[in-house]
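Reproducibility note. Readers wishing to regenerate the assembly model reported in the main text can use the exact inputs given here. Chain order matters: entities are listed in the order in which they were concatenated for prediction.
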Amino acid sequence: MIPVLDLVDVTKVYGDGDAVVRALDGVSLTVNTGDYLAIMGASGSGKSTLMNIIGALDIATTGDYHLDGIDINHLDEDALSIVRNRKIGFIFQSFNLIPRTTALANVELPLAYRGVKRGERRDRAKAALTAVGLSDRMHHRPNELSGGQQQRVAVARALVAQPSLLLADEPTGNLDSRATADVLKLLDQMHDEGRTIVMITHETDVAQHADRVIVLKDGRIDEDRLNR
Amino acid sequence: MNLFESFRSGVQSIMANRLRSGLTMLGIMIGVAAVIVLVAFGQGASNSITGSIEGLGTNLITVFPGTAGGSQADANLAVKDLTVDDAVALNDQVLAPDISAAAPTKRARVSCTAGTLSHGTAMIGSWPVYFEISNSEVSEGGYFTNSDELDGRRVAVIGKTVADNLFDEADPIGKEMTCNGVPFTVLGVLVSKGASGFGDQDDTIIAPLTTVRNHLTGIGSLDTIAVQAASSQTQAQAQEQLTVVLDARHDVDEATRDYQIFNQASLLTTVNQALGIFTALLGAVAAISLLVGGIGITNIMLVSVTERTREIGIRKAIGASRRVILLQFLIESTVLSLIGAFFGLVLAFLVTRVEVAGIQPAIVPASVLGAFVISVGIGLFFGSYPANRAASLRPIEALRHE
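Running the prediction on these inputs yields the following structure tokens for the assembly.
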């Protein structure tokens, strides 16, 4: 079986000459379908860089990265945007919904970029919003929703296109404890349904929800353990 | 994401910043209105002048005595007078088939009185066919006839201005007036041609040539022979035949010609050319304001791209390609420009209803179409730089933007 994520000796180097920074220094990582992985690490450990590379938002300097068997390192920008659209569902710390646009339209957006017809798009977006428990908030704009509700809209948006990978970057970083519990419960539920999830966090109790935790330190994997 | 949806999202984000979008549109609106209005004024001026030239007569060619060099040259050459026989010869259908009519004219300055009122004007003596040649129809009464001309009867048809000055409110038909001591009976009043370009065309009296010569001017050279070409297409041929007939009768050639020809068609062409340049200049000046409006669009779109950097980052992260982002901003700037152009058009229609300095502006359909095409072009051109900037933003940097 082809792993969802397959990183081999990935490095990312910023700058040149004396000012060179090795944000990632030889990371190898494999994630299979249905895995729930948490990536931890102090700030400056390379978490965000790794997340950008996994999310096909940035390209590794050296090393190989295959997502669902696709060689990401050799794609141009337009091809990367197609990969992000089809393979990855993003959940960000600061929700990142499009302002002045209803929850429904936000959730429809990935399907719109994929070219799904209007009617089908609407149905699928409604189903995704219902799945995260927001069927009564579809026509609200982001500024009319609480943080927890916004993040649930973001989860719906990440799920609606049926991606191979759910990539969550500090999904609970801006939430109170109740909303945190809600969102983590939602992620657990997705995991139970067999989705592949990679979550970046610095909170140990949040990381406890994952099956497997890796800890980054100075751009290398310092620790790789199974939770259960 | 099809074109229609991109269009909707463009309108949405324009509506989200109403004041700013409105002010930007104002620039395009003023530019478009300026182009359409100024071109309309140019066209209005052209219509008005063309109208007064055509009022002189349809397909009119006028022959004057004398050489092109003026009186000095006339003295050296044996200048023959223009005679009634010349006019008769020009009516020959064999020699001049493209001339439909020719009439000799003799002009006299007259001072006329009727009752207690008096008025000074010019009296033109000619043949009845002159009414047709000079586009002079009567609104009341009738014309004088060939027998009036042959017998030299003292009858006349007067212009509207003359009628107003001599008879005031009264009906002048059948009344008497005395011009330079000679009594005339008024047969008709001419349809008003209005006063524009060439002075008051209604300040005139038309009487039989024989009468004018016998009683007022004496038998001398004619002032002009008015010639009408059969149609506007045959003006050149008519003029050619006219030249052949008169050259033979006067025994002259091109170098020694003792008469001059004034062609209404060539005057119209010249005047229209001059007015065309005038209109184009006006349009060009107005186009500068359209350009300024376009720069306003670039400016506001750059602000919009900077403001929405994070949004662009999100869109790119969830799979928007360069093309989609480019299209979104291009459509936004084009819609902005088009709405501005629409309001500019409305403004132009309102402004051109007003008559200024006796000129009624005439909207040129091509300028309306042109303004729309240009405003779409402006939206695309002036929006392309900001849109390109948005499309080439790197998603990770755009997402980090606060």
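We highlight two features of this model. Strands of chain A lie at 5-14, 21-31, 36-41, 62-67, 70-71, 88-91, 165-169, 196-200, 212-217, 220-226. Chain A has one domain: 5-226.
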